[in-house]
Amino acid sequence: MTAQTTPTPPFRDPQLPLAKRIDDLLGRLTLDERIAFLHQFSPAVDRLGLAAFRTGQEALHGVAWMGPATVFPQAVGLGATWNEDLVRRIGEAVSTEIRAMRARDDRVGLNVWSPTVNLLRHPLWGRGEEGYSEDPKLTSAIATAYTRGLRGDHPTYWRTAPVLKHWLAHNNETNRDTTSSSVRPRVLHEYDLRAFRETVQAGAVAGVMPAYNLVNGRPNHVSPYLAEHLRTWTDEDLLVCSDAGAPSNLVDSEHYFDTHEEATAAALRAGVDSFTDHGTDSSKIVERVRGALDRGLLSTDDIDEAVRRQLSVRFRLGEFDPGADPYADAKDFDTPGHRALAQEAAEQAVVLLKNENGLLPLAEDTRVAVVGLLADECKLDWYSGTLIHRSTPLEGLYERFGAERVTFAEGVDRVRLRTSAGTYVSVPEAASSPDEVRGAEGALDPALLAGRTDLPPLTTDATGTDLALVDWGDGVLTLRAPDGRYLSVAEDGCVRASADQPGGWVVQETFRLERHESHEGGHLLKHLGTGRYVSVATDGVKVADENPEIFTLVVSERGEESVTRVAGQADVVLVIVGNDPHINGRETEDRTTLRLPEHQERLLRAARAANPRTALILTSAYPYTVDSADLPAALWTAHGGQAAGTALARVLAGDVSPAGRLPQTWYASDADLPGLLDYDVIGSRQTYLYFEGTPLFPFGHGLSYATFAYENLSYRLTDEGLKVTFTLTNTGDRTADEVPQLYVRAVSPSVPRPRRELAAHRRVTLAPGSPTDVTLDVPLSTFAFWDVAQNRHRREPGAYELLVGASSEDIRLSTTIDLDGEPAAPRPVREHGLDAAAFDDQRGTEIVDRTKTSGDAVTPVDGGTGELLFHDCDFGDGVAEVTVEASGEGTVEFSLNGGPVLAVLPLSATGGPYDYTTLSAGIVAAGVHDVHLKLRGPLRLARVGFSG
């Protein structure tokens, strides 16, 4: 008898078109199975041989949260390299490690939630470390390079499937799930959408993740922009994955919908395909989808469309073609090549801000004093992997210059905590120190983390222990034992010296000293992670809800004393300060100021006073404002990953000439900043594009140990755009990189345009005396702006400047070109009316949702008074009536050219915010005029029309 063979189902046949394979598999899934696929953790379907699948693997600058992996510089540091080729290679390395790690641990996912393409609009945004730049062109260039590396170059199969974060206009952590970003159409299209659009159009993106916030009054998870814009940019199926907990926020915190069934249905219909909610428990989402189906809020077609997009990604990842997947057997992990790449990236990310009197690079025989809180640290952030290797600046300098030529003072305050009973807090000896629990490769033992309970709690005795106290700003403190362990609090409430460094979603290593009014010199010590105060009990030091201990701070040594001691004996002092990525600026927490913490400013002042040959080295995720007037040298680097120290030492020694460039403006003071929630970069003159003040350091700034000459600027106009060519020559005495930057500027624009706008750049390596011709391509679309009157991009005819230089403010060559285009035309308001949000200018208003599913309206801020201005409105031969579509209550006043009020339209309460009514009034208007509308009260204006 001949054995029968089961025919291979069409979805397993790689010879068939992808769409047919998806159709076949989708048709084999039951409704229950398809609904289950909508949760982040999709279950296996054993009868079809489908494995479980989860969306989401963090890989911002290396594989995160899955154990040891190569750790590259923070994303903002990668942005500072201005080097797409380098970033593409990093993406390749990261995705290769993801594949290798997945081969031994199926918890590692291939749907990668990275990179973050939110623009670094505001330097106080807590998650600025995750983005690349304040400029949409640079951001999209770096993001495209990273996604291409993550995707791989096979024509069919993807190494990983990258998802861009966070759609859209997301730059604040403060109340991030309830605040609304008011984004006028020009800002939306020219700024916030642009970084996403150009990256998606490049073809290596699998999807996006909506952000927690609302845009124009509507949560991003039900945004019509997903369908209206995102999915029109590519023919590929794009997977939209919700952010964690955001589907529930639609009801629980945002109160946008009354029920979770309504919210889930609205998100699914808007385009969300995978719901990240309630951790691994999919039952809530399944229940909500079922409820929405039963209530008629969803159709099975809605579900099928979402599952189809998810299956498309799984097919592209080769899941159903294991024999054909070229990445299935990836084994490269922590290779010498990956280690070298991490060092190269850290070197290229260093930005030399200032260098007078030849202080840098350091001569071989220089006696160096290294001081500062970041000098012997290799800091990680929330999206870092676990270090396999580590290199601090101090270790790098020891290695490069020799320990005998390097002296060190951390500069921390040494204190003891005396109790009200006269005893002192004491740290028991640990069985192992942080250095002892590192393996041969430097990887941390996972046990040495906050939450470790096998160590004894702190106690009190007659002498106590000197603790290192650091104030990171705003009174946020860390306390550290002499062996380097940070004081931390575990679930049992005991205080232990148990953490290698601050970390975790809720940081358990930060405290605050609060003066006790009834006890002179006494303080309460508040633990910020739990909100409770430290107390002393018979069984050790704890945090508790009652009986807080009153401590007296006994200072053994101020940090600046140790700095002064070593600084005066050195040829050069390196002050290495900055931020801890888990404190005062991170996901869930915005910064409050650009200033360095007072503790660090004290150290810098002490070093300057002791030795004028002082260089400031800022190791930080963010810009700072510092007084650099009497500093001969300063440089900045983001937290540089596993090779940070080695890379920094090589730059300081001159083995590598620095060529990093600032990816965002460094402002001179907090007074230069707009409000954190003011997303109107045009109206409030934000970023280098519009800022009219004098920055501390401008966008694109960065010095070199070499010098470069720019000559022979020319251009050639083609059908596709401009080819701009110039000669770049290294006129210095060492091989170095230069980053020539091309900016464009409209000379006489009819609307506010950027002061200058990055159009192209390139990182170039040149030997001494070596010239090269650099050609940069500029598409003609670069010169267009969003015409609110015509609701599309338009290029104006006229003169445009081409500006070539070393930064946005260091322009070396320029020329002017005349381009043709489409002349401006008056708005035909008699025929088409005015959409309220399509204003040319405004004061005191914000954009809100016209309905819960589509459209915009405008309302006065806080129900007060606002004004809208619409230029060049053409009333033709004349109109006799103005109508407004509005909801709420208040009045709309109509005038022309800033003249007298011609019509007042009073609006009685209409009920809810989406209950619109139409009001009309008689006017006389003909020809072309500017329309002024004054809005009074808590009304929403959607449209203005004209007739007669």
TrEMBL record:
Annotated GO MF terms: alpha-L-arabinofuranosidase activity; beta-glucosidase activity; carbohydrate binding; xylan 1,4-beta-xylosidase activity
Gene3D superfamilies per the UniProt record, alphabetical: 2.60.120.380, Galactose-binding domain-like (2.60.120.260), Glycoside hydrolase family 3 C-terminal domain (3.40.50.1700), Glycoside hydrolase, family 3, N-terminal domain (3.20.20.300), Immunoglobulins (2.60.40.10)
Parts forming coiled coils: none
UniProt key word Hydrolase: yes
Entry keyword set: Hydrolase, Signal
Keyword set includes Transport: no
Highest taxon listed in the record's lineage: Bacteria
GO BP terms: arabinan catabolic process; xylan catabolic process
Residue ranges occupied by any CBM6 domain in the UniProt entry: 832-947
Entry's family note: Belongs to the glycosyl hydrolase 3 family.
Functional note: Catalyzes the hydrolysis of a non-reducing terminal alpha-L-arabinopyranosidic linkage in ginsenoside Rb2 (alpha-L-arabinopyranosyl-(1->6)-alpha-D-glucopyranosyl) to release alpha-D-glucopyranosyl (Rd). It is not able to hydrolyze alpha-L-arabinofuranosyl-(1->6)-alpha-D-glucopyranosyl (Rc).
Protein name: Exo-alpha-(1->6)-L-arabinopyranosidase
Organism: Streptomyces phyllanthi
